[in-house]
Design goal:
2 copies of one chain form a homodimer. With 192 residues, chain A is mainly alpha-helical. Chain A is built from 10 helices and no strands. The interface between A and B is large, with 45 and 45 residues. Chain A binds a DNA duplex (19 and 19 nucleotides) through helix 3.
Chain lengths: 192, 192
DNA sequence: ACCTGAACACCGTTCAAGT
DNA sequence: ACCTGAACACCGTTCAAGT
């Protein structure tokens, strides 16, 4: 999934920073704690990334790219758009499974105003990736372009909200229950 | 709406802290900046609140109480449950109108794991207030208790997600558009 | 009762110094 | 090329000292 496969220091920093940011956000990303996880001192981080802002931007950029790859894979695995749509929430569920973490970009959307601009750009890019994929699938399922785009935004916002709420309660079953309620209400049905 | 009407120092601290926390979260609530807004030094804050955790808990407690009052007022103003339901998103829209702020508790839900427990309790209380109100209105509209509770959770999560996304884009029209999409999809319709 | 300056251990960041 | 200790201005917090 990730662009780099070897385990260089920069790579280890990126991986550890992603996990911390998913759990604690940009403000909660502590460089001294991050350095300790990687086995170096905080000052050494600056040899790999010029600043916390650049590091976080690199983390978010990869996160968006990995999400795009995951969604493409989902499209390839499913032959019917309705099936792809139904499985979309899985991508958000996985963060919850993985240590009650949330989508990096959901957390950073809350922090948006305090984010360095290079990080903001990547958070927007993540949203674009998701909206484009959802809109495409909805159009394959028969929706007109404009309606599909509006519905894509609604699904993205709703699933993000479900993930946030489930993580607050530390209850992954709540996430499943919320997605099911959305389904019952008709949010994933293109035909209305 | 608020419990206190006079403008004591404690009151001014509480009001200023609420505004800062809505924009920057618990981690972004800077005590030196807060003190400056109120016109005192950071050390003086400790004469009014024993710690940042206690201050934030007081802020969240009042926020939950004010929300409960707002929702009761909404019930009183509307005679039909469908109308009350349709106007529910207004309570979230107002934060956006007021300086692109978001619901205090949405922000704190993202930060949940890093919150002091006394603050966590109040964030949960806010959610309970909203869920109880929504569930009550949905039951008045004819839903069975269990279905109403599930749908209440779905509406709460979806509206929270919409607010978060709109604030990230700094676009209140996006919020309106998302709520409209939810309506079109059937999320606010008890009859399904 | 309320306020303050100074100090504490903590943050992100820089930089001279090491290998 | 990569790492480090020490220092900087910043955080939440404490406390002795003031009114």
């Amino acid at each position: 999934m990730s662009s780099e496969a070897n385990s260089s220091s920069s790579e280890k920093i990126l991986v550890a920073a992603t996990r911390i940011a998913q759990a604690h956000g940009y403000a909660g990303l502590n460089l001294r704690a991050l350095a300790e996880q990687v086995g170096i001192k905080a000052a050494s981080l600056y040899h790999h990334f010029p600043s916390k802002a650049d590091l976080a931007a690199a983390v978010a950029r990869r996160y968006a790219a990995d999400s795009a790859a995951t969604l493409e894979l989902l499209t390839a695995e499913t032959d019917q758009p309705a099936m792809a749509l139904a499985r979309y929430p899985e991508t958000f569920r996985r963060s919850l499974e993985n240590g009650n973490r949330i989508c990096l970009c959901s957390f950073m959307t809350a922090e948006y105003d305090d984010l360095p601009s290079e990080v903001q750009v990547q958070v927007q890019a993540f949203a674009e990736v998701n909206l484009a994929w959802l809109s495409g699938v909805l159009q394959e399922a028969g929706m007109k372009k404009k309606s599909a785009e509006l519905r894509a935004q609604a699904i993205f916002a709703a699933v993000s909200g479900a993930q946030l709420m489930a993580r607050g309660r530390q209850d992954i079953k709540l996430f499943d229950s919320l997605i099911e309620s959305y389904r019952v209400a008709g949010l994933f049905s293109p035909d209305n």
